[in-house]
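Project standup — Tuesday

K.O.: blocked on the structure for the chain from last sprint. Re-posting the sequence here as requested.
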Amino acid sequence: MPQVISDLRMWLRLLRPHQWLKNGFVMVGLLFGHAWSDPDKLIAALFAFAAFCLLASGVYVMNDLIDCEQDRHHPAKRHRPLASGAIGVQTALLLMVVCFAVGFALVFAGGSHASWVFFAYVALNVAYSFGAKHIVILDVFIIAAGFMLRILAGTLGLGIEPSQWLLLCGLMLTLFLGFAKRRAELDAIAGDDKGIDKIVRQHSLYPLAASHRRVLEHYSTALLDQFITVATAGTLVSYSLYTVSPETLALHGTTNLIYTVPFVLYGMFRYLFLLHRRGGGGDPAQELMRDPHLLVAVAGWLLLVLLLLR
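H.V.: unblocked you, prediction finished:
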């Protein structure tokens, strides 16, 4: 019995159910399209959410199978089930096939109006895993595209016209998270080496970074900080403009969404604090679950949006 429980835990670690929080982007259409009271659209959104959960888990297993050797050089990822040898390759392959099969079955069962989105998501991740992840900057844009496809599944897939402002905001936010992830990976590999000259540290980091993730060789902390700054400003400006745009007033009948901006601002600043001062930023889902400030910012934003759009 203890062995069965141990195996189940390892399978769950491989599937990473905590990452399913990211699939909450599927619900954006229901929220801003005033469709949460439509039972048909709600059920379709839940099917889309569940499908993305399984497809994403299948992608995680596929990535771990491909990156198994590199993960063994990472200070944290070397403890993953495949990298540590806790789960065998054949078991992982079977798990991946089951996730993809059931995930696509849910896509068709849910009757999505944009089933191509789910196929595009898997195809994009296959391209990422088999080479695109080694192309600097493009690697992060592909990660962001995965989130954008979730938004499209929850809008076009439900017959809801997506707002151009929200699509732009979603793109900037996911680029912010993607570049922050790369920054956190560099920091994790560098370790806590305070007192070492920054230039020496940066150059000595390259061989080790490349041994874990080849694309990190082309990034530097200074370059990533610039990318993060641009993405942060883009997110805040695009979301702020959305809250006061004529389109918003016509659709929601209110410009009071501007009062949700402080929650977005605080949440992004908190995330930057965690990235630079607490060694975080590598996993948005984990940061959200373990940091009370970030959790309150997201919950406060969601609650205020629901109150204003009711």
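K.O.: great, moving the ticket to review. The chain has two domains: 1-162, 163-310. DSSP finds 14 helices and no strands in the chain.
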